[in-house]
Amino acid sequence: MKIDTYVSKTYKCVQHLCPCGCGNKIITPIGKNAWNIEVHDDGTISLSPSVGNFYLPCRSHYYIKHGKIKLC
Ligand SMILES: [Zn+2]
After folding, report:
1. What pLDDT tens digit does each residue of the chain (72 aa) get?
2. pTM of the model
3. Domain spans in the chain, listed from the N-terminal domain onward
4. Which residues contact residue 11 at a Cβ distance below 8 angstroms, ignoring those fewer than 6 apart?
5. Cα 48 to ligand 1 centre (Å)
6. Ligand 1 center from residue 17 Cα (angstroms)
7. How far is the CA of 23 from the centre of ligand 1 (A)?
8. Which residues are bridge partners to 57 per DSSP?
């Protein structure tokens, strides 16, 4: 499943919509104590570690790899 991500260099974060379809905007901060971002040659990104939205009702948990969602 492909996912659109928006990388904000100013705020050092990545935004995307929760892939479960609940419509929540997920913001992952980038940095030492947060997520690590990899930007690939084709313009897609990978985030590590996984994204776990356990504070949302959907409690979705997934990886973003090369601009695609991998559910856990
Ligand atoms: Zn969701």
Report:
1. 999 999 999 999 999 999 999 999 999 999 999 999 999 999 999 999 999 999 999 999 999 999 999 998
2. 0.91
3. 5-71
4. none
5. 19
6. 8
7. 7
8. none
